[in-house]
């Protein structure tokens, strides 16, 4: 019997963003400081104290349409990495390519084009212009692009409708709640139809209920728009709800970049294991993630959907009498079987 390899990590053949050995060092002599670190030379303490290695030798590919979530403690380099990917800052070493083009070689015009046409950004602070209506705020990037008034208002109106703010076009930012203001920020970043969308803790200033609502809204938009998304968050629940892959950073380096399933089941380092220790694995691990070939004949009876989490399947895992439960992929093909004991362990919070 041939089993599908749906649960294997993706290899990305034509990434939208590709970074190779990217470094970003702040300080008076970053190139020298990078060379010292690469050579294993210990910089003298005075030089070391003057420099911060915010991004350390990061190599990463991001697939078209992928949602990559970046996590890590405060100061681990998440925002700096995103700034390197969008060339908001110049990198100290390595290359960042967008659709195969090294963005380090772009001149000023090329850079402006890249930011105005290809990349959208949303930050934690909404950054709305207080004296402009929200329609004007959303239309602003198109004004910068020189688009005529009628066309830009029409487009901005569509974006406001998309984020559920139709009817509020004439309001000023101060007349909206935090969640609504962030919706305006999202509409403004989408108005230029970016292929790549960077979001740096966009919901962290919102209270938990609104935050949840914004995540739902975001998932809806993600489904509609099919963009490549890089999203920073401190919140594991948020990451698990949104991510195709999660990159965990420590001291500027990526410790592990993997699917949520694999991050919790196969942490690559001690640090990742500790970082993810409090996560309820049953909510993360999907049947496909623990499917393996059957030990003997394929068990009779219905298969469970590989996309369901162990938590979703909780009742069945407890009551099913089969030692191995067949698991099917989204196309109906058999992925393998789920060991019921192992699934029970995950469900009850046992070691995995
Ligand atoms: N312009 C700068 N000049 C000097 N150091 C900087 C600069 N920007 C960032 N850093 C330093 O680089 C390191 C990484 O910062 P960064 O903001 O990327 O971390 P982060 O993971 O996004 O943190 P947070 O979660 O708190 O936003 C930190 O030590 C920070 O102080």
Automatic annotation (TrEMBL):
Key words, A-Z: ATP-binding, Nucleotide-binding, Transport
Enzyme Commission code(s) on record: 7.6.2.9
Gene Ontology biological process terms in this record: response to osmotic stress
Swiss-Prot/TrEMBL catalytic activity: a quaternary ammonium(out) + ATP + H2O = a quaternary ammonium(in) + ADP + phosphate + H(+)
SUPFAM superfamilies: P-loop containing nucleoside triphosphate hydrolases
GO molecular function, one term: ATP hydrolysis activity
SMART domains according to UniProt: AAA (SM00382)
ABC transporter domain segment(s): 17-276
Oligomer and partners: The complex is probably composed of two ATP-binding proteins (TmoW), two transmembrane proteins (TmoV) and a solute-binding protein (TmoX).
Similarity annotation: Belongs to the ABC transporter superfamily.
Matching PANTHER family: GLYCINE BETAINE/PROLINE BETAINE TRANSPORT SYSTEM ATP-BINDING PROTEIN PROV (PTHR43869), GLYCINE BETAINE_PROLINE BETAINE TRANSPORT SYSTEM ATP-BINDING PROTEIN PROV (PTHR43869:SF1)
Protein name: Trimethylamine N-oxide transport system ATP-binding protein TmoW
Annotated source species: Paracoccus alcaliphilus
């Amino acid at each position: 019997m041939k089993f599908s390899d749906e649960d294997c990590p993706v290899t990305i053949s034509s990434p939208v963003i590709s970074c190779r050995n990217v470094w970003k060092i702040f300080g008076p002599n970053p190139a020298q400081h990078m060379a010292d670190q690469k050579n294993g030379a210990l910089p003298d303490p005075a030089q070391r104290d003057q420099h911060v290695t915010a991004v350390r030798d990061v190599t990463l590919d991001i697939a078209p349409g992928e949602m990559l979530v970046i996590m890590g403690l405060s100061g681990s380099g998440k925002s700096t990495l995103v700034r390197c990917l969008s060339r908001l800052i110049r990198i100290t070493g390595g290359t960042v390519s967008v659709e195969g083009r090294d963005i380090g070689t772009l001149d000023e015009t090329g850079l402006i084009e890249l930011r105005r046409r290809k990349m959208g950004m949303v930050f934690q602070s909404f950054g709305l212009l207080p004296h402009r209506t929200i329609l004007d705020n959303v239309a602003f990037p198109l004004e910068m692009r020189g688009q005529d008034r009628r066309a830009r208002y029409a487009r901005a109106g569509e974006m406001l409708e998309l984020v559920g703010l139709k009817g509020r076009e004439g309001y000023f930012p101060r007349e909206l709640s935090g969640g609504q203001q962030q919706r305006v920020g999202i509409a403004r970043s989408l108005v230029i139809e970016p292929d790549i969308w960077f979001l740096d803790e966009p919901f962290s200033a919102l209270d938990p209920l609104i935050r949840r609502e914004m995540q739902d809204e975001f998932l809806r938009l993600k489904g509609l728009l099919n963009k490549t998304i890089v999203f920073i968050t401190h919140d594991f629940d948020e990451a698990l709800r949104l991510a195709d892959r999660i990159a965990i950073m420590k001291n500027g380096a990526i410790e592990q970049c993997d699917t949520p399933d694999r991050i919790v089941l196969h942490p690559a380092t001690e640090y990742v294991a500790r970082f993810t220790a409090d996560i309820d694995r049953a909510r993360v691990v999907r049947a496909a993630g623990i499917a393996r070939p059957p030990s003997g004949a394929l068990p009779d009876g219905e298969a469970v959907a590989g996309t369901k989490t162990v938590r979703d399947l909780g009742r069945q895992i407890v009551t099913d009498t089969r030692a191995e439960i067949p698991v099917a992929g989204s196309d109906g093909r058999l992925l393998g079987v789920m060991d019921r004991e192992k699934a029970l362990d995950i469900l009850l919070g046992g070691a995995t």
